[in-house]
Every structure is written in structure tokens, then in C-alpha cells.
Design goal:
Blueprint lengths: L4 E8 L3 H4 L9 E8 L4 E6 L3 H10 L2 E4 L2 H9 L12 E3 H9 L5 H9 L7 H9 L3 H25 L1 E5 L6 E5 L20
Parallel strand pairs: 1-4, 4-5
Antiparallel strand pairs: 1-2, 2-3, 6-7
Helix pairs in contact: 5-7
């Protein structure tokens, strides 16, 4: 039976250079991409469609993301009537940081674990939005959703993922246990900044 889980990633309209690192809420959402485990489908929501996404968020048993607590959810929060603190969240970056003692990037984990990489950087997404290239922006966002979903799936199957260190460029194994974490992921604090 399919799990009532969502993998989520979003892109922003603005950069930290424009709004400052302490003002996540001012970055504004350009698009939000999800993979819905219940329906086995990918979907992208534009800023004007976030109320539709909110209805789906309300019923999800687990929201999976990469740096979702420190970035995606604080950026999304001003658009929602529900409190982000009530969402059951599994932040893959946080879980990896608990094991490694430092943060790693989605790119390094995807490259080492899946053999595939991100298709660009966050500033590329801001440029696509500014240029009105919304379909390209959606593809970029959904690629990050796919990487997040596949890293999560791999970790559930293998109880480990990998990353490539930016210090010595070697591949390292990260033992993890993501199975059964849905019931323990309702935490009450969300940082308001990345640092």
C-alpha cells in the first residue's frame, strides 16, 4: 500500500542578496514541486496555486525534504493558514548532519548515492523566474524533488546513503535509519535563518 508521504522542494523569486539571510519569508515562492507517494506523481504549483497545495499538505502523514526545516518551510509559511510546526517533517539534511556532525549538500549526496546530480543552482532558478521561463523553472524544481525522493527511497532500502566531501573529494558512507520516523518528526521549532 502506498504511503501518504510527500517529497517537497521549492524555488524562490528573490535571493539572499536582495532580502538578507535573516528574512527567509521575503524570498517569496516562485514554484513548489512535490512527489506524491499516494498517487505516484510529480506536480508543480505556482505561487497562485499554493492554497491547493495546502489542502494536500494537511492530509500528508510525512513531508520529506532536504534542508526543508531551515529553508523551504519558513519560505512557504507566509502563504499557509496552517502552522508549519504542525507538519510531520523528515529533513534528510538534518538527519545526515546528526550522523556526520556537519551539513552536506543535496548535490553531493545525490552524486555519491545515486550517480546523478542537480541540474543547476538556486540562483539559476531565480533567473528563470525573472525571465518568465516558468516551464524550465518547474523542470529544475522537480529534478530536485526527484533527487530528494530517490535519496529517501535509497536510504529506506539500504539504511545508508553517501556523500562526496568538499574537503578531500572522497566518497563517504552515512549510516541512517529513516524507516518508521514519520511518527516522531513533529517537532516544534523551526529556525528562522540558515545560520
Amino acid at each position: 500500500m502506498a504511503q501518504n508521504y510527500l517529497a517537497l522542494d521549492l524555488e524562490t523569486q528573490k535571493t539572499f542578496d536582495e532580502v538578507g539571510r535573516q528574512n527567509l519569508h521575503k524570498l517569496k515562492v516562485s514554484v513548489v514541486g512535490i512527489y506524491d507517494y499516494l498517487n505516484d506523481e510529480y506536480r508543480c504549483y505556482e505561487e497562485s496555486e499554493i492554497s491547493i497545495l495546502e489542502e494536500r499538505l494537511k492530509s500528508a502523514e510525512l513531508l520529506i525534504g532536504f534542508n526543508i526545516r531551515r529553508f523551504d518551510l519558513p519560505v512557504l509559511s507566509p502563504y499557509l493558514f496552517l502552522s508549519i510546526e504542525t507538519l510531520p517533517v523528515l529533513d534528510l539534511m538534518d538527519e545526515i548532519e546528526k550522523v556526520r556532525g556537519h551539513r552536506v549538500s543535496l548535490h553531493s549526496v545525490a552524486q555519491a548515492t545515486l550517480g546523478i546530480t542537480k541540474t543547476g543552482e538556486g540562483w539559476n532558478a531565480v533567473n528563470l523566474y525573472a525571465q518568465g521561463r516558468i516551464e524550465e523553472l518547474k523542470r529544475y524544481c522537480l529534478n530536485d524533488v526527484k533527487l530528494t525522493k530517490e535519496i529517501y527511497d535509497y536510504g529506506c532500502r539500504e539504511n545508508r546513503v553517501y556523500f562526496i566531501s568538499n574537503r578531500d573529494w572522497k566518497k563517504y558512507e552515512i549510516p541512517i535509519n529513516w524507516n518508521g520516523l514519520a511518527s516522531v518528526k513533529k517537532e516544534t521549532s523551526f529556525p528562522t535563518s540558515l545560520f
